[in-house]
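Table S4 entry, Spore protein YkvP/CgeB glycosyl transferase-like domain-containing protein.
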Amino acid sequence: MDAGSVESLFAGYPDVRLRLVSRSAHTSQVVTGFLMLARRRRIALTIEDAGHRREEYPHPHLVEAFVGGRRIAFDMLDGYNFDVVAAAAYIRGVDLYFKRSCSTFRNGVFPAEVRAKIRPLGFNYHVTCPENPINPVPVEIKSLRKRLIALLRPRPAEEGEYFTVEKFECGAGRRVAAKRLKILFLTRLWEGEQNRAINAMRIAIVRALGERYPRNFTGGVTDTPLARALCPELIVAEKYTDRARYLRLMRRSDICIGSTGLWDSIGWKTGEYVAAARAVVNERFVYEVPGGFREGVNYLGYASAEECVAQVDLLMRCPDAVQRMKEANAAYYREWLRPDALVGQALRQAEML
C-alpha cells in the first residue's frame, strides 16, 4: 500500500485528546476502550495527564475526551457521593456527561440544563490493556516469602496484565446439562452498621446455596476480621480470591450471582459476568443500563436471599434458559460492554463515529 492510500485510509478519523484526572482503577475501562479504538485505527489518540489540575474536578474518577470540538466526560464514580454544587458546575462546562451509576430519579438533584447533558454509561469493571497508563507501576518485592512465591509461580510484570480483555471473554459455549451446571457466589462483608442488612443477606445466600447445591455451588466470603466474627465457616480459601484463579473459576461457572456495591452501584463482578457471557442472578439494579439490558433476558433479579435462591432454582431446572441468557449476554457484551464498544456507543451519541 503506497503513502497516498495510507493517507486516505486514515482520512476522516476523529482526533481524540484524552485527559486523565487520576490513575483510578475505575477509569481503566474507558481508557482501554479508547486505546482499542486507536489500535483499530478508528480514532487518532493522544493522552494527557491532568493530575496536577485535580482541584478543577468534582472527584478523581473522571476521564475527559476532547473530540470534534466537544468536551465529553466519563464519570466512573460508584454513585452520587459527590458535592452536588461542584458537580453541577462541572457538568455545565461539558457537552455530554456519561455516568456509570446513572439514575433519572437521582439526577433530579440537578437543574434541567444539567440533567439534559447526563447519559447512562453502563457496567464498570476493571479491564485494561498493556499500554494503558492507568496500569499500576511494578514495585520491588521486598518480602522474602513473596519473592519465593514469585519464583515458583511467575506472574506478569504488571498487575494490569491480569485484567486484559481476553481474560474475561469465553463466549456462551455449548448448553450444559442441568446436573453439571455450576453456580458461583464469592462475596465480602462490609464494616459499619449501615451494612448490617447487606451482610446478612450475603451470608444467607451463601449458606442456602451451599446446602441446596453442595456439588454445584462454589462460594463463600472473603477472609476479613468481620467475616471471622460473623461466619468463620463460610470463609473461602485464598486460592479462590487470587485474581487469576478467580477469573478462571468464573469463566468455568454457568450461573453467577452478583450483589449491589457501594453507594448502590452495580458491582464490578456483574460487569465481569456479562463480559464472560455467564447467566446472571443479581440484586435488582438501582441504576440504569443502556442498550436494552433487561431483567428476564440478561439477568434474573432478587431483593432477598429467598428470592435469590428461587431464581437460581429456576435456572437450575432449565438449562435452556441458562444457555439463552449466556447468548444474550454475549451479544450485549459485543455491542455495548466490551471497552471499545462502550466508548464507541458513547461517541456515536456524540455523533463522532
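The two ends are 25 Å apart (CA to CA).
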